[in-house]
Structures are given as structure tokens and as C-alpha cells.
Amino acid sequence: QVQVAESGGGLVQPGGSLRLSCVASGNIHRIYNMRWYRQAPGKQRDLVASVTSDGSPSYAESVKGRFTISRDNAKKTVYLQMNSLKPEDAAVYYCYAEIQIQDMSGLVRYTGQGTQVTVSS
């Protein structure tokens, strides 16, 4: 059974920082693209940042210069360092991973349960 699980959310003041982590576990052969999405109440789920298997990142315009996505392939983990947080960054943050399972062909897409980020004074 393959799972992805986020951690690191919490309450932070405007201007503060948080680091989210997402670990993939189970019978994994390889992980391809990994992404962070977020969804605020009453809004659609939006892509925040993405990183390829070789570490190439991309970002939504709203977080460029403030957020950094990175990954540790040996630990099957993706991170999202969030700096200069704004109230509008508050949302549930979801991890997404494209995973090839051991002894199987093709990719399976997994999304975690999410971690809440609250930005408030």
C-alpha cells in the first residue's frame, strides 16, 4: 500500500515562515513529479508548486520569491518552505505525487489528506 502524508502545518503570524513536508511510503519503485496544492474554504484547489524527479521547480505567480519547493529522493520526501506568509496563503495544503509501484508499469497519482496552514495575527 502506497501513501503520501503531509506534516508541518500550523498557525503562523503574517510575515512568518513554515516548512511543510510530505513523505511517500510503501512499495515504491520511483517517484516522478511531486506537487503542492492548496485549497481555501469556498475556493478551488490551486497548484502552488511543482518539482520534477530531477529537482526542477516551478511556482504559481502568487508564491514566487516566497516559497521554495525541494525534494529528497532518498527519503521519498518533498518539502515546501514558505516564507513571508500572508493571510491569503491560509489554506489546506495537499501533497501530490506520481508514483511507479514496484513490479508494476505505469504511474499512479496519490494525494495526501492535507495539512492546515493558518496565517493570522
Percent in strands = over 45%
Mean pLDDT: 97
Count of DSSP helices?
0
How would you sum up the global shape?
elongated
Spatial gap, N to C terminus: 40 Å
**Percentage of helical residues?**
under 10%
Class by helix and strand content? mainly beta
Main sheet summary: 7 strands, mixed
Pick out the low-confidence regions. Answer: none
Order of helices and strands: EEEEEEEEEEE
Rg, please? 14 Å
Count of individual beta strands: 11
What does this 3D model show about the protein?
The protein has strands spanning 3-7, 10-12, 18-25, 28-39, 46-51, 57-59, 67-72, 77-82, 91-101, 108-111, 115-119. β7 (67-72) and β8 form a beta hairpin. It is elongated. With 121 residues, the chain is mainly beta. 0% of the residues lie in helices and 57% in strands. Strands 2, 4, 5, 6, 9, 10 and 11 form a 7-stranded mixed beta sheet that branches. Strands 1-3-8-7 form a 4-stranded antiparallel beta sheet, with no helix packed on it. It is built from no helices and 11 strands.
